[in-house]
Amino acid sequence: MAEVNLVINGEQVRAQEGMSILEAAREADIFIPTLCHHAEIDAYGACRLCVVELRQGDRSRVVASCLYPVAEGLVVETESEKIKNYRRTILNLLLQRWDNIPRALLDRYGAAPNPRYVENMTFCILCGLCVRYCRDVKGANVLGFIGRGTIRQVVVFPDQAMKYCPTCGNGEMECLHYCPTGVITSDYQGTGPANGQPLPHAYPVCIRDETNILEILERVGHLEY
Amino acid sequence: MLGTVDRIIDSYGARQEALVQILLDIQHELRWLPRPVLERVAARLELPLNLIYNVTTFYKHFSLVPQGRHSISVCVGTACHVRGASRLLGRVSEALGIKPDETTADEKFTLKTVSCLGCCALGPVMVLDGEYMSNPNSTDIAELIEKCE
Predict the structure, then answer these.
(1) Residue A57 C-alpha, separation from nearest chain B C-alpha, in angstroms
(2) Which of chain B's residues have a Cβ under 8 Å away from the Cβ of A144?
(3) Which entry of A78, A111, A191, A214 is 20 to 30 Å from B114 by CA?
């Protein structure tokens, strides 16, 4: 693997070709916040918190560092004014879905919960970590996304769940630990069918009460799916 | 039903990248995508079911609930709206006894709303199985519904 040299926040950083800017920064102990990133799982670029600025002379671009590969001579800024503004906006948007984002992160970028949005809280920020972990690491495909835009949500497929969940992580499903909101909400009272269509064979997941998915399946087991 | 599905899948050589086209063809024949069909598609294409649902719920064209044999669309675009689309929709809705996006119990009609059909001069417009009509009154609607098999 070839080595490349780049500059992050004025520091010379060496990285292996093929790494992302985020990986290179973390190896050099440079902080970049993320919510949808996990070292075991392929980068996805969902939360956008990892945006950084690439400087090219007088011009600059904002890119998602978790997906952008390192290259020789890159000049990266991870905490410029522009980036701080971006992250504040992103955090304010995320706060509309999830109001319990770590305080330190909010304070760092000056974001604050807005009482106007509490009613619409879904708690899921659609980072896809649980879905990707289940699919890519476990090969189980118990979880999935349905819908698009504002009605996009994570659902669990009961048939698959019955097959895989009982043995996953010795009965304590591993996906739960990947949810950055801390609560893969198993909320079946919930939001109901996507775009008004009944979807009797897939239940929305949204873990407000940390209920075990299997318990929920027992609860809804009488439903036909 | 699954025979039809298999035939369509075979016509695309069961290729994964033909998923959307396969689903479109199946829906064209069956009018909607029942769960056993999605399971068959998943098994034949060796794709996980969650991916099939991801795709079928992403595109508005796909329906996971039964659709009527006849489709009635009422335009609620801007021009039709100002010319009384809501009253027309109300009349159709009342005649069929269903709300928009619903299907009658006998699976005869599905009522949908659309946003602009490009013939605003005719507004408010209703389309029954591809046939356009301009602001039909309650009697017209009752007659049209009567004529459908």
Answers:
(1) 41
(2) 48-51, 53-54
(3) A191
The one-digit pLDDT tens for each residue of chain A (225 residues) are: 789 999 999 999 999 999 999 999 999 999 999 999 998 899 999 999 999 999 988 899 999 999 999 999 999 999 999 999 999 999 999 888 887 788 889 999 999 988 777 666 667 788 899 899 999 999 988 888 877 777 677 777 767 777 787 777 776 667 777 877 754 533 333 333 333 333 333 444 543 333 344 444 444 333 333
Interface list for chain B against chain A, based on CB atoms closer than 8 Å: 35, 48-51, 53-54, 57-58, 60, 63-65, 101
Cβ partners under 8 Å of residue A45, min gap 6: A36, A64, A66, A67
Convert A33-67 to b/e letters by CB count within 10 Å (16 or more is b): bbbbbbeebebbbbbbbbbbbbeeeeebeebbbbe
Q: Return the CATH architecture of domain A3-119.
A: Roll (3.10)
In order of start, what are the domains of chain B with their CATH numbers?
A: 2-58 (no CATH), 70-147 (3.40.30.10)
ipTM above 0.90, yes or no: no
Closest chain B residue by Cα to residue A152: B58
Chain A residues inside the 8 Å CB shell of B54: 144-146
